[in-house]
Amino acid sequence: MRYQDSMTPMERAAAIAKGEAADRLPCNPNIANGVARIYGCKVSQFNTDARTLAAAQIAAYRKFGSDGVRIFTDLFPWAEAMGAEVICPDDATVDLKRPAVAEISEINRLRPANPYQDGRLPVHLEAMKYLLDELGSEVGCSGGIVGPFTNAFFLMGIDKTLRLLRKNPEAMHQLCQVSLETCINYAEAVIDIGLTPTISEPMSSCSVVNPKVFREFSLPYLQKLVDYIKGRGKGVVIHICGLTHKIWDDIAAMGISGFSIDNVSGLKDCCRQIGDKVKIMGNVDPGGIMYAGSVQEVRQKTLECIRDGYDSPKGYTVMSGCSLPIETPIENIVMMMDTVREVGYPVDIDKVNHMLRSMEEAG
Protein backbone atom coordinates (compact mmCIF):
# COMPACT_ATOMS: atom_id res chain seq x y z
CA MET A 1 0.00 0.00 0.00
CA ARG A 2 1.28 3.44 -0.92
CA TYR A 3 -0.69 5.21 1.81
CA GLN A 4 -1.35 4.48 5.46
CA ASP A 5 -4.27 5.42 7.68
CA SER A 6 -3.54 7.67 10.62
CA MET A 7 -6.90 7.07 12.32
CA THR A 8 -8.94 4.03 13.24
CA PRO A 9 -12.37 3.76 11.59
CA MET A 10 -14.03 4.77 14.86
CA GLU A 11 -11.76 7.80 15.26
CA ARG A 12 -12.42 8.75 11.64
CA ALA A 13 -16.18 8.46 12.00
CA ALA A 14 -16.17 10.53 15.19
CA ALA A 15 -14.09 13.30 13.62
CA ILE A 16 -16.26 13.53 10.51
CA ALA A 17 -19.42 13.55 12.62
CA LYS A 18 -18.06 16.56 14.52
CA GLY A 19 -17.15 18.38 11.32
CA GLU A 20 -13.44 18.00 12.01
CA ALA A 21 -10.62 17.00 9.67
CA ALA A 22 -9.93 13.31 9.18
CA ASP A 23 -7.37 11.30 7.26
CA ARG A 24 -9.86 10.21 4.55
CA LEU A 25 -13.45 9.41 3.70
CA PRO A 26 -14.81 6.12 5.05
CA CYS A 27 -14.35 3.27 2.57
CA ASN A 28 -15.66 -0.29 2.61
CA PRO A 29 -14.89 -2.53 -0.38
CA ASN A 30 -17.42 -5.14 0.89
CA ILE A 31 -15.09 -8.08 0.31
CA ALA A 32 -17.60 -10.69 1.57
CA ASN A 33 -16.49 -14.32 1.06
CA GLY A 34 -13.36 -13.13 -0.70
CA VAL A 35 -11.89 -12.88 2.80
CA ALA A 36 -11.26 -16.63 2.46
CA ARG A 37 -8.58 -15.83 -0.12
CA ILE A 38 -6.96 -13.32 2.22
CA TYR A 39 -6.93 -15.68 5.20
CA GLY A 40 -6.11 -18.82 3.22
CA CYS A 41 -9.11 -21.03 3.92
CA LYS A 42 -12.02 -22.54 2.01
CA VAL A 43 -15.35 -20.75 1.91
CA SER A 44 -17.05 -23.91 3.16
CA GLN A 45 -15.25 -23.57 6.50
CA PHE A 46 -17.40 -20.51 7.21
CA ASN A 47 -20.44 -22.79 7.47
CA THR A 48 -19.17 -24.80 10.43
CA ASP A 49 -16.24 -23.00 12.05
CA ALA A 50 -16.98 -19.72 13.81
CA ARG A 51 -13.33 -19.05 14.59
CA THR A 52 -12.37 -19.33 10.92
CA LEU A 53 -15.26 -17.12 9.84
CA ALA A 54 -14.19 -14.41 12.26
CA ALA A 55 -10.47 -14.85 11.63
CA ALA A 56 -10.92 -14.38 7.89
CA GLN A 57 -12.80 -11.13 8.40
CA ILE A 58 -10.16 -9.95 10.86
CA ALA A 59 -7.36 -10.81 8.41
CA ALA A 60 -9.02 -8.82 5.63
CA TYR A 61 -9.53 -5.84 7.91
CA ARG A 62 -5.89 -5.92 9.01
CA LYS A 63 -4.75 -6.06 5.38
CA PHE A 64 -6.96 -3.37 3.86
CA GLY A 65 -8.25 -1.19 6.74
CA SER A 66 -11.88 -1.00 5.66
CA ASP A 67 -14.39 1.04 7.65
CA GLY A 68 -16.60 -1.83 8.67
CA VAL A 69 -16.41 -5.56 9.33
CA ARG A 70 -19.42 -7.82 8.90
CA ILE A 71 -20.37 -11.42 9.59
CA PHE A 72 -22.41 -12.41 6.53
CA THR A 73 -21.79 -15.38 4.24
CA ASP A 74 -24.78 -15.68 1.90
CA LEU A 75 -28.50 -14.96 1.54
CA PHE A 76 -29.86 -18.24 2.87
CA PRO A 77 -29.03 -18.97 6.56
CA TRP A 78 -32.40 -17.67 7.79
CA ALA A 79 -34.50 -19.65 5.31
CA GLU A 80 -32.32 -22.68 6.01
CA ALA A 81 -32.93 -22.26 9.73
CA MET A 82 -36.67 -22.35 8.95
CA GLY A 83 -36.49 -25.58 6.95
CA ALA A 84 -35.02 -24.79 3.52
CA GLU A 85 -32.18 -26.90 2.15
CA VAL A 86 -28.98 -25.39 0.78
CA ILE A 87 -26.08 -26.46 -1.41
CA CYS A 88 -22.73 -26.01 0.32
CA PRO A 89 -19.88 -26.14 -2.23
CA ASP A 90 -16.39 -26.91 -1.00
CA ASP A 91 -14.97 -23.51 -1.90
CA ALA A 92 -17.78 -21.28 -3.14
CA THR A 93 -20.79 -19.46 -1.75
CA VAL A 94 -23.81 -21.39 -0.49
CA ASP A 95 -26.87 -21.53 -2.75
CA LEU A 96 -30.50 -22.52 -2.26
CA LYS A 97 -31.36 -26.17 -3.05
CA ARG A 98 -34.96 -26.49 -1.85
CA PRO A 99 -37.30 -23.92 -0.27
CA ALA A 100 -38.85 -24.60 3.13
CA VAL A 101 -42.39 -25.07 1.78
CA ALA A 102 -43.82 -26.05 -1.57
CA GLU A 103 -47.53 -25.28 -1.14
CA ILE A 104 -49.60 -22.46 0.34
CA SER A 105 -51.15 -24.90 2.82
CA GLU A 106 -47.68 -25.52 4.28
CA ILE A 107 -47.09 -21.89 5.27
CA ASN A 108 -49.03 -22.54 8.49
CA ARG A 109 -46.37 -24.96 9.70
CA LEU A 110 -43.50 -22.48 9.36
CA ARG A 111 -42.08 -21.32 12.67
CA PRO A 112 -39.67 -18.47 13.41
CA ALA A 113 -36.08 -19.66 13.69
CA ASN A 114 -34.21 -19.80 16.98
CA PRO A 115 -30.87 -18.13 16.18
CA TYR A 116 -29.13 -20.00 18.99
CA GLN A 117 -30.16 -23.43 17.76
CA ASP A 118 -31.19 -23.54 14.11
CA GLY A 119 -29.08 -24.07 11.00
CA ARG A 120 -25.88 -22.06 10.65
CA LEU A 121 -27.14 -19.12 12.69
CA PRO A 122 -25.33 -20.22 15.89
CA VAL A 123 -22.03 -20.35 13.94
CA HIS A 124 -22.55 -16.77 12.78
CA LEU A 125 -23.40 -15.55 16.26
CA GLU A 126 -20.34 -17.25 17.74
CA ALA A 127 -18.15 -15.67 15.06
CA MET A 128 -19.49 -12.25 16.04
CA LYS A 129 -18.17 -12.72 19.58
CA TYR A 130 -14.65 -13.37 18.30
CA LEU A 131 -14.91 -10.41 15.95
CA LEU A 132 -16.02 -8.07 18.70
CA ASP A 133 -13.28 -9.22 21.06
CA GLU A 134 -10.58 -8.57 18.47
CA LEU A 135 -11.81 -5.44 16.67
CA GLY A 136 -14.64 -3.91 18.66
CA SER A 137 -12.57 -1.01 20.00
CA GLU A 138 -11.43 0.26 16.59
CA VAL A 139 -13.98 -0.52 13.85
CA GLY A 140 -17.73 -0.90 13.61
CA CYS A 141 -18.68 -4.59 13.63
CA SER A 142 -21.98 -5.76 12.20
CA GLY A 143 -24.06 -8.85 11.65
CA GLY A 144 -25.69 -9.05 8.24
CA ILE A 145 -29.24 -10.25 7.76
CA VAL A 146 -31.57 -10.50 4.78
CA GLY A 147 -34.79 -8.53 5.02
CA PRO A 148 -38.18 -10.16 5.64
CA PHE A 149 -39.38 -9.85 2.05
CA THR A 150 -36.24 -11.41 0.57
CA ASN A 151 -36.22 -14.24 3.10
CA ALA A 152 -39.86 -14.96 2.24
CA PHE A 153 -38.83 -15.71 -1.35
CA PHE A 154 -36.39 -18.37 -0.16
CA LEU A 155 -39.01 -19.94 2.09
CA MET A 156 -41.25 -20.76 -0.86
CA GLY A 157 -39.04 -20.35 -3.92
CA ILE A 158 -38.73 -17.31 -6.16
CA ASP A 159 -41.15 -18.35 -8.93
CA LYS A 160 -43.90 -19.51 -6.55
CA THR A 161 -43.51 -16.43 -4.38
CA LEU A 162 -43.85 -14.13 -7.39
CA ARG A 163 -47.09 -15.92 -8.27
CA LEU A 164 -48.23 -15.65 -4.67
CA LEU A 165 -47.88 -11.87 -4.84
CA ARG A 166 -50.47 -11.78 -7.61
CA LYS A 167 -52.81 -14.61 -6.71
CA ASN A 168 -52.88 -14.82 -2.92
CA PRO A 169 -51.86 -11.58 -1.17
CA GLU A 170 -53.11 -12.86 2.17
CA ALA A 171 -50.79 -15.87 2.04
CA MET A 172 -47.92 -13.61 1.01
CA HIS A 173 -48.45 -11.43 4.04
CA GLN A 174 -48.52 -14.55 6.21
CA LEU A 175 -45.20 -15.64 4.71
CA CYS A 176 -43.67 -12.19 5.27
CA GLN A 177 -44.87 -12.09 8.86
CA VAL A 178 -43.23 -15.35 9.92
CA SER A 179 -40.12 -14.31 7.99
CA LEU A 180 -40.08 -11.02 9.91
CA GLU A 181 -40.23 -12.88 13.21
CA THR A 182 -37.10 -14.81 12.29
CA CYS A 183 -35.36 -11.57 11.27
CA ILE A 184 -36.25 -9.89 14.56
CA ASN A 185 -35.09 -12.92 16.57
CA TYR A 186 -31.76 -12.81 14.80
CA ALA A 187 -31.42 -9.03 15.10
CA GLU A 188 -32.09 -9.35 18.82
CA ALA A 189 -29.30 -11.91 19.18
CA VAL A 190 -26.86 -9.77 17.16
CA ILE A 191 -27.57 -6.73 19.32
CA ASP A 192 -27.34 -8.73 22.54
CA ILE A 193 -23.81 -9.76 21.52
CA GLY A 194 -22.92 -6.11 20.95
CA LEU A 195 -22.95 -5.77 17.15
CA THR A 196 -25.19 -3.79 14.82
CA PRO A 197 -27.50 -5.60 12.36
CA THR A 198 -27.29 -4.52 8.73
CA ILE A 199 -30.03 -5.44 6.27
CA SER A 200 -29.77 -6.75 2.69
CA GLU A 201 -33.05 -6.68 0.75
CA PRO A 202 -32.22 -7.72 -2.84
CA MET A 203 -35.73 -8.91 -3.74
CA SER A 204 -37.11 -5.44 -2.94
CA SER A 205 -35.23 -4.06 -5.93
CA CYS A 206 -37.22 -2.29 -8.62
CA SER A 207 -35.36 -4.65 -10.95
CA VAL A 208 -37.39 -7.48 -9.38
CA VAL A 209 -40.72 -6.03 -8.21
CA ASN A 210 -42.47 -2.76 -8.95
CA PRO A 211 -42.75 -0.01 -6.33
CA LYS A 212 -46.40 -0.83 -5.64
CA VAL A 213 -45.46 -4.39 -4.68
CA PHE A 214 -42.57 -3.10 -2.56
CA ARG A 215 -44.85 -0.72 -0.67
CA GLU A 216 -47.52 -3.34 -0.03
CA PHE A 217 -45.47 -6.45 0.77
CA SER A 218 -41.93 -5.43 1.69
CA LEU A 219 -42.00 -1.97 3.24
CA PRO A 220 -44.36 -2.70 6.18
CA TYR A 221 -42.22 -5.61 7.38
CA LEU A 222 -38.94 -3.90 6.64
CA GLN A 223 -40.13 -0.90 8.64
CA LYS A 224 -40.95 -3.14 11.61
CA LEU A 225 -37.47 -4.65 11.49
CA VAL A 226 -35.89 -1.20 11.24
CA ASP A 227 -38.02 0.06 14.13
CA TYR A 228 -36.98 -2.88 16.29
CA ILE A 229 -33.28 -2.29 15.64
CA LYS A 230 -33.61 1.45 16.23
CA GLY A 231 -35.58 0.76 19.38
CA ARG A 232 -32.56 -1.13 20.68
CA GLY A 233 -30.40 1.94 20.14
CA LYS A 234 -28.73 0.95 16.88
CA GLY A 235 -28.60 2.78 13.57
CA VAL A 236 -29.67 0.81 10.51
CA VAL A 237 -27.89 0.41 7.16
CA ILE A 238 -29.81 -1.15 4.26
CA HIS A 239 -28.55 -2.43 0.92
CA ILE A 240 -30.88 -3.09 -2.00
CA CYS A 241 -29.49 -4.46 -5.25
CA GLY A 242 -30.37 -3.26 -8.72
CA LEU A 243 -32.44 -0.19 -9.56
CA THR A 244 -33.98 1.58 -6.57
CA HIS A 245 -34.59 5.18 -7.70
CA LYS A 246 -38.39 4.80 -7.64
CA ILE A 247 -38.36 3.89 -3.93
CA TRP A 248 -35.61 6.20 -2.66
CA ASP A 249 -38.08 8.45 -0.85
CA ASP A 250 -39.71 5.43 0.79
CA ILE A 251 -36.34 4.19 1.99
CA ALA A 252 -35.29 7.57 3.37
CA ALA A 253 -38.62 7.93 5.18
CA MET A 254 -37.92 4.75 7.16
CA GLY A 255 -35.49 6.63 9.37
CA ILE A 256 -32.41 4.56 8.54
CA SER A 257 -28.90 5.88 9.02
CA GLY A 258 -27.29 4.54 5.84
CA PHE A 259 -28.36 3.37 2.39
CA SER A 260 -26.05 1.34 0.14
CA ILE A 261 -26.84 1.50 -3.57
CA ASP A 262 -25.92 -0.80 -6.43
CA ASN A 263 -23.69 0.34 -9.28
CA VAL A 264 -26.65 0.45 -11.71
CA SER A 265 -28.24 3.22 -9.65
CA GLY A 266 -27.16 6.86 -10.02
CA LEU A 267 -25.00 7.93 -7.10
CA LYS A 268 -25.20 11.65 -7.80
CA ASP A 269 -28.99 11.51 -8.21
CA CYS A 270 -29.39 9.49 -5.02
CA CYS A 271 -27.31 11.96 -3.01
CA ARG A 272 -29.31 14.84 -4.45
CA GLN A 273 -32.69 13.25 -3.73
CA ILE A 274 -32.27 11.72 -0.26
CA GLY A 275 -28.75 12.64 0.85
CA ASP A 276 -30.16 15.18 3.29
CA LYS A 277 -31.97 12.38 5.14
CA VAL A 278 -29.57 9.43 5.09
CA LYS A 279 -25.88 8.67 4.56
CA ILE A 280 -25.29 7.30 1.05
CA MET A 281 -22.90 4.41 0.41
CA GLY A 282 -21.63 3.10 -2.93
CA ASN A 283 -21.31 2.38 -5.72
CA VAL A 284 -18.18 1.13 -7.54
CA ASP A 285 -19.11 -1.72 -9.89
CA PRO A 286 -18.17 -4.96 -8.06
CA GLY A 287 -18.06 -7.13 -11.19
CA GLY A 288 -17.11 -5.05 -14.20
CA ILE A 289 -14.62 -2.84 -12.34
CA MET A 290 -13.48 -4.38 -9.05
CA TYR A 291 -13.34 -7.96 -10.34
CA ALA A 292 -12.70 -7.61 -14.07
CA GLY A 293 -11.18 -4.13 -14.36
CA SER A 294 -7.60 -2.91 -14.23
CA VAL A 295 -6.17 -1.09 -11.23
CA GLN A 296 -6.41 2.15 -13.19
CA GLU A 297 -10.08 1.54 -13.92
CA VAL A 298 -10.63 0.96 -10.20
CA ARG A 299 -8.85 4.22 -9.43
CA GLN A 300 -10.90 6.16 -11.98
CA LYS A 301 -14.25 4.76 -10.85
CA THR A 302 -13.39 5.34 -7.18
CA LEU A 303 -12.51 8.96 -7.96
CA GLU A 304 -15.75 9.40 -9.91
CA CYS A 305 -17.74 8.09 -6.96
CA ILE A 306 -15.94 10.46 -4.60
CA ARG A 307 -16.68 13.33 -6.98
CA ASP A 308 -20.38 12.41 -7.12
CA GLY A 309 -20.93 11.66 -3.44
CA TYR A 310 -18.40 13.50 -1.27
CA ASP A 311 -20.67 16.44 -0.40
CA SER A 312 -23.84 14.48 0.34
CA PRO A 313 -25.34 16.30 3.34
CA LYS A 314 -25.64 13.31 5.71
CA GLY A 315 -22.30 11.87 4.68
CA TYR A 316 -20.88 9.49 2.14
CA THR A 317 -18.97 6.21 2.27
CA VAL A 318 -17.03 4.89 -0.71
CA MET A 319 -18.19 1.32 -1.26
CA SER A 320 -18.58 -1.34 -3.91
CA GLY A 321 -22.08 -1.52 -5.34
CA CYS A 322 -22.59 -5.00 -3.85
CA SER A 323 -20.47 -7.80 -2.38
CA LEU A 324 -17.27 -8.41 -4.33
CA PRO A 325 -16.83 -11.67 -6.25
CA ILE A 326 -14.65 -14.12 -4.35
CA GLU A 327 -11.75 -13.94 -6.82
CA THR A 328 -11.56 -10.13 -6.95
CA PRO A 329 -7.87 -9.24 -7.39
CA ILE A 330 -6.21 -8.07 -4.20
CA GLU A 331 -4.47 -5.26 -6.06
CA ASN A 332 -7.85 -3.82 -7.07
CA ILE A 333 -9.04 -3.74 -3.46
CA VAL A 334 -5.77 -2.07 -2.45
CA MET A 335 -6.24 0.51 -5.21
CA MET A 336 -9.75 1.42 -4.01
CA MET A 337 -8.46 1.99 -0.48
CA ASP A 338 -5.33 3.83 -1.60
CA THR A 339 -7.29 6.15 -3.87
CA VAL A 340 -9.50 7.22 -0.98
CA ARG A 341 -6.40 7.72 1.17
CA GLU A 342 -4.74 9.79 -1.55
CA VAL A 343 -7.75 12.12 -1.77
CA GLY A 344 -7.89 12.67 2.00
CA TYR A 345 -10.54 14.58 3.97
CA PRO A 346 -12.04 17.15 3.75
CA VAL A 347 -12.28 16.33 0.07
CA ASP A 348 -10.71 18.93 -2.20
CA ILE A 349 -12.93 18.57 -5.26
CA ASP A 350 -10.47 20.52 -7.41
CA LYS A 351 -7.83 17.93 -6.54
CA VAL A 352 -10.20 15.09 -7.42
CA ASN A 353 -11.10 16.67 -10.76
CA HIS A 354 -7.42 17.23 -11.51
CA MET A 355 -6.68 13.57 -10.76
CA LEU A 356 -9.46 12.51 -13.12
CA ARG A 357 -8.30 14.84 -15.88
CA SER A 358 -4.76 13.56 -15.54
CA MET A 359 -5.99 10.00 -15.99
CA GLU A 360 -8.01 10.95 -19.05
CA GLU A 361 -5.04 12.75 -20.61
CA ALA A 362 -2.81 9.78 -19.92
CA GLY A 363 -5.22 7.62 -21.90
Automatic annotation (TrEMBL):
SUPFAM superfamilies: UROD/MetE-like. One of its GO terms (molecular function) is uroporphyrinogen decarboxylase activity. GO terms for biological process: porphyrin-containing compound biosynthetic process. Pfam families: URO-D (PF01208). Residues 8-342 form the Uroporphyrinogen decarboxylase (URO-D) domain. Gene3D superfamilies: 3.20.20.210. InterPro entries: Methanogen_methyltrans, UROD/MetE-like_sf, Uroporphyrinogen_deCOase. Transmembrane segments: none annotated. It comes from the Bacteria. This is Uroporphyrinogen decarboxylase. It comes from Formimonas warabiya.
